[in-house]
Design a protein that fits this description.
By secondary structure, this protein is an alpha/beta fold. Helix content is 58%, strand content 9%. The chain is built from 11 helices and 5 strands.
Length: 272
């Protein structure tokens, strides 16, 4: 009998501690006082704990999606939507995608560079990694290189360039989509270099590129910045070579056409 009472006391105490922890996480510290719940019947405490857990889960979900929108990502993507095997990316280092998905490189403040032609999954993998980083509490910005080039010009014209650069420097993770699609004049090249240089070894930058980053950098207005950019992109970075892979979008489109064609044939046969 004493053993049962001891167990009941332990269960009661554990439940109160869980309720206190939930109130703390919800920033309701005044309610995170265990003495408030002494004498309340156990079933009532269980009901309170269940209600708090559901509310906390809903609040966390809303916070996540708000952070997702603030980052510039319209929809969460998870790793179960990214399918690959050892033959998908013939030039990629074995295991490199798995390592990228652990997001340890972000914790280590290293960069990630993904290169390959359109349609091979660079953007999808980048979004998946970005979503995981946001769930882990990292502050993130997701931008195309074209939008950065445009926003640098607009910030310069509006005398807010330093503020814009600080914003790109402050986030834990900066994702730059389609790096080689952007062109920079000297002024914007200097500002872009300031962003990359300021983040170097301090914050993580994730880059996707459809073509050679080296060739793109060689067209920079300043050759010294060109050489320095390549070093800051690649040094100690995680590199995923996605060249040689099949165009996923084209493959999916062909599959839809073939499926539609098969249905059409079956319907024609049925009508005949």
């Amino acid at each position: 009998m004493l053993l049962k009472q001891d167990n009941a006391s332990e269960d009661f105490g554990a439940l109160i501690n869980n309720i206190k922890a939930l109130f703390q996480e919800m920033n309701l510290s005044r309610l995170a006082n265990g003495s408030l719940y002494l004498g309340i019947p156990f079933p009532a405490l269980e009901a309170l704990h269940l209600a708090l857990s559901e509310q906390h889960s809903e609040d966390e979900k809303k916070r996540f999606y708000n952070r997702l929108r603030y980052a510039g990502i319209p929809k969460e993507r998870t790793s179960d939507t990214f399918k690959w095997d050892e033959d998908t990316y013939p030039f990629a280092e074995p295991g490199v995608i798995e390592r990228a998905l652990t997001i340890d490189f972000i914790r280590q403040r290293k960069n990630l560079v993904m290169t390959g032609p359109p349609g091979v999954g660079k953007s999808l993998l980048g979004v998946i990694i970005a979503c995981k980083a946001i769930r882990e509490g990292f502050a993130l910005k997701y931008k195309t290189s074209h939008s950065i080039a445009t926003e640098l010009r607009e910030a310069k014209a509006g005398n807010s360039l330093s503020g814009y650069i600080k914003k790109l420097l402050s986030c834990d993770v900066l994702v730059i989509e389609d790096l080689t699609f952007a062109t920079f004049d000297l002024k914007r090249a200097q500002s872009f270099f300031a962003v990359i240089d300021g983040r170097y070894r301090i914050k993580t930058t994730i880059i996707t590129s459809n073509s050679s980053i080296e060739e793109w950098a060689n067209n920079f207005p300043n050759q010294i910045m060109s050489t320095a950019l390549i070093g800051r992109f690649y040094q100690e970075a995680l590199l995923i070579n996605m060249n040689g892979a099949e165009d996923m979008r084209l493959k999916q489109a062909k599959g839809m056409i073939e499926t539609t064609g098969s249905k059409d044939k079956r319907s024609v046969k049925f009508e005949n």
